[in-house]
Design a protein that fits this description.
By secondary structure, the chain is an alpha/beta fold. Helix content is about 40%, strand content about 20%.
Length: about 290
């Protein structure tokens, strides 16, 4: 089986390694020749695709693909993959699955209420509105061309090298407190496992929330990470006093609780890390965090 991935980001790269280990042939786009060379040792075929410049061999990868995963964030004017490769994807003779990695941000601010896979998108941030538009474009493309297309709405991603333990070790961890604020998270391995399960069960229009089972205040996660390491947590900082980038502050403008039970029931997936506690404990056991 052959998978083509557009955008070899953190989650997509984890999936690529999983599928290669399972016997799949994987081709993926990257932004630079240096990265293409770096990942070649993993048994992964990498093609350069940056802005509107692309390796012509990508069209051959599409023609041979059984599945295509889109992991490139949208630009201001829509989805670069759909704009560049829609004709090739429509003609691909073996393509039976398209997946689009999106974000739970498309649900917008719910004042702490629960959302699930049946909740209509109501994005409040400009970037999330673009995401919702691109989601709709991919679903319309799949319906028009008979390509089962799936949306994966992902909560905050953490995993090896990207977690509160690493932030503690680097001295960058902060306990920012905004009363009532919670976020869901998802370990990158659980993302890969869930997407891999969907590859075996194509269903056009499927929407899958990829999140853990415990929406939690962000400061609690840092406190738990510090406890695992046997160090004092950093002091609490009131949200009003926190120096955040506009992007960082925008995350705190939304509060929702994400239910993903339907996703796991439909795909038969049990999360390896159902809360941040199991995920951080495993990462700490693997050596992450301050010595």
């Amino acid at each position: 089986m052959r998978l083509v991935i557009f955008g070899l980001g953190y989650a997509a790269h984890t999936l690529a390694r999983m599928q290669i280990a399972g016997g799949w042939q994987v081709a993926a786009t990257v932004r630079t020749a240096a990265k293409a060379e770096a990942v070649a040792a993993e048994g992964l075929t990498a093609r350069v695709f940056a802005d509107d410049a692309h390796d012509a061999a990508i069209f051959d990868d599409i023609a041979r693909a059984d599945a295509a995963l889109i992991s490139i964030p949208p630009l201001g004017d829509g989805d670069i993959v759909l704009r560049t490769f829609s004709d090739a994807l429509a003609r691909a003779p073996h393509l039976e699955w398209i997946g689009y990695l999106s974000t739970v941000g498309v649900y917008g601010d719910r004042n702490g209420a629960w959302v699930d896979e049946t909740t209509p998108p109501a994005p409040t941030e400009p970037r999330s509105r673009v995401r919702a538009e691109v989601e709709a474009a991919w679903l319309a493309f799949g319906a028009a061309h008979g390509r089962p297309t799936h949306l994966f709405r992902i909560a905050g991603i953490y995993g090896p090298g990207r977690n509160a333990l690493k932030q503690l070790a680097a001295g960058t961890a902060r306990r920012i407190v905004k009363p009532g604020q919670v976020f869901n998270r998802i370990h990158v391995d659980d993302i890969a496992t869930t997407v891999a399960a969907s590859l075996n069960q194509p269903r056009h229009g499927a929407v899958y929330n990829l999140s853990d089972a415990e929406p939690a205040p962000p400061q609690d996660v840092v406190t738990y990470a510090a406890r695992l390491c046997g160090v004092a947590p950093p002091p609490e900082i009131a949200f009003e006093d926190a120096e955040l980038s506009p992007m960082g502050r925008s995350f705190y403008a939304e509060c929702k609780r994400v239910d993903s039970r339907r996703t796991h029931e439909e795909l038969g997936v049990m999360l390896r890390y159902p809360t941040y506690r199991e995920g951080l404990a495993a990462l700490r056991a693997a050596g992450e965090g301050p010595v």
